[in-house]
Design a protein that fits this description.
- The complex is a heterotrimer.
- Chain A has helices at about 75-85, 105-115, 140-145, 160-170, 185-190, 195-200, 210-225, 240-250, 260-265, 285-300, 315, 335-340, 350-365, and strands spanning about 5-15, 20-30, 30-35, 45-50, 55, 60-65, 90-95, 120-125, 150, 175-180, 195, 205, 230, 255-260, 305, 380-390, 410-420, 420-425, 430.
- In chain A, about 30% of the residues lie in helices and about 25% in strands.
- Chain A is built from 13 helices and 19 strands.
- In chain A, the strands form 4 sheets. In chain A, strands 1, 2, 3, 4, 5, 16, 17, 18 and 19 form a 9-stranded mixed sheet that branches. In chain A, strands 9-10-13-14-15 form a 5-stranded parallel sheet.
- The longest helix of chain A is centred in the middle third of the chain and has 17 residues, at about 210-225.
- In chain A, helix 1 crosses helix 2 (about 105-115) and helix 4 packs across helix 7 (about 210-225).
- The relative contact order of chain B is 0.16.
- In chain B, helix 5 packs across helix 6 (about 165-175).
- By secondary structure, chain B is α/β, with parallel strands linked by helices.
- By secondary structure, chain C is α/β, with parallel strands linked by helices.
- Helix content of chain C is about 25%, strand content about 25%.
- In chain C, the strands form 2 sheets. Chain C has a 5-stranded parallel sheet with strand order 3-2-4-5-6.
- In chain C, helix 2 links the parallel strand 2 and strand 3 (about 60-65).
- Chain C starts with a strand and ends in a 15-residue tail after the last strand.
- Chains in contact: A-B, B-C.
Chain lengths: ~425, ~300, ~190
Amino acid sequence: MSERTLFRGARVVDPASGRNGVADVLVQDGAIAAVGGEAPSKGATVFGCEGLILAPGLVDLHAHLREPGREDKETVETGSRAAAVGGYTALAAMANTDPVADNTAVIEEVRSLAARAGLCDVLPVGAITKDLAGEEMAELGEMAHAGVRVFSDDGRCVSTSWVLRNALRYAGAFDVVIAEHCEDASLAEGAQMHEGLHSHTLGLAGAPPEAEEIIVFRDLSLARETGGRLHLCHLSAAGSVELVRRAKAAGVGVTAEVTPHHLVFTDEDLVNYDTNYKVNPPLRTPEDRDALRAAVADGTIDAIATDHAPHAVEEKEAEFDQSPPGTIGLETALAAVLTHLVEPGILSLPRAIEAMSTAPARILGAPGQGGPIEPGRPANLAVFDPAVAWVVEPPFASKSRNSAFLGMTLRGKVIHTMYRGDLVVADGKAQR
Amino acid sequence: MRKHLLSINDVSAEDVVRILDTAESFREVGTRVIKKVPALRGRTVVNLFYENSTRTRISFELAAKRLSADVINFSTSGSSVVKGESLKDTALTLQAMGADAIVIRHSSSGSPYTLTKWVRGSVLNAGDGTHEHPTQALLDLYTIREKVGRFEGLRAAIVGDVLHSRVARSLSFGLVKMGADVTLVGPPTLIPPDAPAWGVQVSHDIDGVLPKLDVCYMLRVQRERQRQQYFPSVREYSRLFGLTRERVGMLPEGCLIMHPGPMNRGVEIESDVADLPQAVIEEQVTNGIAVRMSLLYLMLGGSGERWGDE
Amino acid sequence: MKSGRLLDAGEIHRAVTRIAHEILERNKGAGSLVLVGISARGDDLARRLADEIERIEGAKPSVGVLDITFYRDDIGMRAEAPEIHETRIDFDITGKSVVLVDDVLFTGRTIRAAMDALVDFGRPTSMLLAVLVDRGHRELPIRADFVGKNVPTRKDESVRVALEEVDGEDAVYVEEPGPAERRVGREKNE
């Protein structure tokens, strides 16, 4: 007997097809069967979705699942569950695991762990250089043949310019993306936060925005020269945004992402030395934040990506300068964007969904993700209530608790997440 | 009075006056035969010193004992602080011992703030990384008030490595709070560019500043900063910014020369300058006990939250 | 808040004079005599007594000021730490006959604290207590040796002493309790 699910009466926001209005969505045998009007409900499980939004499942370009190596902080399974709870049906898992994902063995392991969990697509990212050391190229071709579409040394920056140039050129043979964490090592050395009045008042070493902008400029120049596909991770500075805008206007093949926390918080939030705000790149000034927001709105920044970075409780409870940087984000990303960007009118809802689903799916080359929600396409869907208010507090689906949004009230809650036809989250709860 | 003293910005100008006035009374106690009063009898004060500092720790220890409090010393120079034990675990142990106040000195900026999350007692910052050293600032304010008599319009210069100095931060904020005119002096690499937002002026020309001063406060400049390339050589630094005998001659009569100690004789201050009468460095130490007694009394003498009382 | 006057300026002056005579009589002269007034107002009274003793006897005893805040038994019970006033005792009290001087004697706790403070300064030969007003309601076994006036009061009333030096007039008032008044500074009447 075929499995049929009907989502009735939701407002379907699907940037890939341009649809933005109330429609019924019928799912059968893992694929979209019908969209629009009023679909027949015979034999189907019906979910009344009046007042809710139905969107293509969100796609995260940037998450750290910590497995293999630091399963105490997160595993592929718990990370996938956190993603599903947050409305994500696909994510890219960064390569800075232990051992590093610089070979097909680790890639395959992550893939099979994800398949076993069966909660979302996990697309493993391969390292650009062996062991993330920034010296020798990893076997990009071999990993590309194994299906890897994005390479990144994230966590680290490829500091030697000719290594990056080489990688961009070599990768041109495989239609893959080189994603860079832009950070000049000497300028950012020892930095705990953004360098400015607040870092000086708090007595913490800071990294100036130039630490990011210099590498952004370098990488854009190399991307232009080599014709390679470049993606810039978690931008934090207004200067970086400006450089990307100009490069895009000049036709350089670059895409960029920003995190929800960089769109919400600033360096002033660190006044009490709360390590949940210690992130890399650091939270910068209100001007930087406004420039990032405008860049998402006008498309200069293509996507919003979480940079979900779980850390153990005792690590985040240590002294500020001993604490590792990072915040979890899969479970709060949608609500944070809805509350702080869509509600105040900085982003339209379709643009927000595009930045969190359609565009990342395109950049990643993620099959069957990001919409369009059309008959025949795999049923990767997120249904959410944009008005429900909730307080960000444990327990989380993630193994870790280091959230920059801890204690905040956000509006927007995922009600159902459907992954390839399988309802992995129903009524706000993970089903397994 | 606030429950914790983590930054000089935790106290208002009125609070500062109250702290200094109360310190006067405690200075008087220091002149009695029995230099002890029972005011904080039954309270426990813990000195948690992750950084070596005999001078400051003894000052706090004496202050607490003269108030009849019980004192526990945890310091890394002894073996009490277990290497590798997290700050949180140490804090929970102190909590279990019934610490009413914890005086913490630590090399990580912000660690006193972190400590307040796990203890119920009052936390006093005795110096955290390059952030602040509020009790030092208060005792310096006490010395200044005693010698000069006022803060309003007082012309003070703080000279040296401001960037890495917690004393410079606390003292600048404190002096500005009390209405003084503060100028930070040093090479551009050692003064935060946004310092004017603190309400101070900045100068890289010490000779231009000296003739118009009431207080000349010299900061310690570590030779390590030369290795980190904040200035090319110790010789050049002392030539451009050191307080030499000659420069002392440029100071107005009655101008105070101060230094938080310990001094790097020959770097920021010439050896025989430190021994001049207008250098009040010794008295800064004596006043420290009275000011710390004042702080402990004001912070623990109120009902606040007392360990053991639920 | 109702108030009534217990003593006027004239009665206060006569009380001071009488106490001065009584002290001299008890001490058999002014030898080894020192006065320690409990601030605030006890010290002003002590100074007046010293002047009076000088007028009578021709010798003026040393006068010291004692703030007993550090010795209070209620530190940590109020929201803020109690405010501290001046202490100045420039002479040695060992071997001396000390007369403690205070304006109002009530529960006796202030005097208990004063005695504990004084023994930290030295070892007097004897200690006597002179007060302007004894209003009863002792909570400790303390009694005054010299009393200006015995005034029975209700426990919830308050007795306020005004002295020329501090308040611009000489008078003693008793006041009905008002709704939760906050008293700043040392609460002496306890």
